[in-house]
Amino acid sequence: MERFRIAGEARLDGTVEVAGAKNSVLKLMAAALLAEGTTTLRQVPGILDVTFMAQLLDTLGCSVKVDAEGRLATIAVPGTIGHQCDYDLVRKLRASISVLGPLLARCGQAEVALPGGDNIGSRGLNMHVAGLEAMGAKVHIEHGFVIAEAPQGLHGAEVWLDFPSVGATETIMMAAVLAKGTTVIENAAREPEIQDIATMLVEMGAQIDGAGSPRIEITGVSGLLNPVDHVVIPDRIVSGSWAFAAAITKGDVTVANGHAEHLELPLDKLHKAGAEITVLNPGFRVRMHDRPKPVDVVTLPYPGFATDLQAFVIALNAISDGAAMVTENLFEGRFTFAQELTRLGAQIQTDGHHAVVRGVPRLSGAPVVASDIRAGAALVLAGLAAEGETLVSAAHHVHRGYTDFAGNLRRLGADVVVEPDDAELYWS
C-alpha cells in the first residue's frame, strides 16, 4: 500500500499535459477484440487500470504491450479468442464489463465475473442485460459471473435505456456492430468518450450514426472489423481536475491539450467561483486570485456536471467564502469523500443526495483515506490548501486514474511525495 504525503499552503503554477481518457481507452482496448490483427492506441494514460485491462485481454489470448513512456498500447488479437474472464482481474476493474459486448458479438458467448472497481455505490447491469436480450442473447448470472449466449448470433433491435447509462450504451453499441440488421439505442449516453469509441469503431469498418446524440443507430456488418491506429481523446475528467486544482490553490494552471468544449459547465462554475478562464487553441488556462465564491452544483449525465468532478467542487466549496449545496444524482456512495474531508476541518452536512458545504478560511492537515479515484485526487488537492501536512492513504485508487499525479503536482510547484503505507485501512 502507498500514501501521499502533502505539504500544505501550496500554490500551483505552470503547464500540465493530459493523456488519453481513462473512460475511453479501456473501452477502446475491449473494442479491439472485434478485429483480428494488431490495433494500436496512442496517447494511452500510464494508469493502473490500463495495466489491468491489458492483463485481462492477455488471458483471452491477446498479446498486449503497453509503452508507458511513449503513451502507446498495441493489442494483437488472434483468430480465435477466449470468452471467459478471470475473476481476480475483473474484481479490480469496473471497466472489465466492457468486454461483454465484443465477446458476445465475436464468440457468440461470454462469461465475465461481476466487476469491481471504485467504492461509490451500486452500478447495476440491468440495462446491459436488457439490451443484449433484446438483440437475441440469453443472459443470466451464475456463481458471480454474467453468462451470455447467442449461438445463432445477435440481431438488430430497438433498445430504450431508462437512464442514459454510459456502460450500457457502450456494451450495446459494441455488440451491435456485428449483429444482423440495425440496432437503435434511444436515450443513449452522449459523453465525448462514447463519441471516441464510435469513431474508432467506424475507422474499423463499423456503421454507426448519431454518437453524441440521444439516438444512436448501428447497422451490423458481416465478418470481423479491421485493426486500426487510433489516437485517444484527452481525458476531460483529468483536465477538469487540474482546472479545480488551480482554483483550490489560488494558482495559475494551463491544461495544454484539454478540450474546453467538453467542460463547459465545470468551467462556467469555476468562473462563477471567481476564476479567470482563458480558452486556448488547444487547451485552456485557469487562474484564481482570491478565496473562491461558493457554487451550487447538481450532477447529471453529460452534458451536465460530471459526477466524477463532484469531489473537486466540494473541496472548492470547503474553502469558499460562503455556503453551497452539492446534489449527487448518480452514485450514492460519492459522499464518502465528504466524510473524509471533514477530518481536514471542512464543514459539510450530508442528507441523502445532498451535501451542504459551509466554507472555512483554511483547512488543517490530517490523515485521511481515499475511497475511489476522484476522492483520492480531491483529498490531495484539499491537502495542498490546508495548513500543515496531510497524509492520503490508499494511493492506489489515484494511480488507477491519473498519470504520475504526484510528479505533475511537483512540476507545478507542490511538495507531494508517494511513500509506503503500512496503516490498516477500513476500506480497500
From TrEMBL:
The active site is at residue 118. It holds the Pfam family EPSP_synthase. One of its GO terms (cellular component) is cytoplasm. Phosphoenolpyruvate binds at residues 22-23. It catalyses: phosphoenolpyruvate + UDP-N-acetyl-alpha-D-glucosamine = UDP-N-acetyl-3-O-(1-carboxyvinyl)-alpha-D-glucosamine + phosphate. The keyword Metal-binding does not apply. UDP-N-acetyl-alpha-D-glucosamine binds at residues 94, 308, 330. The keyword Cell wall biogenesis/degradation applies. Residues 8-409 form the Enolpyruvate transferase domain. It is found in: Cytoplasm. Belongs to the EPSP synthase family. MurA subfamily. This is UDP-N-acetylglucosamine 1-carboxyvinyltransferase. It comes from Kribbella shirazensis.
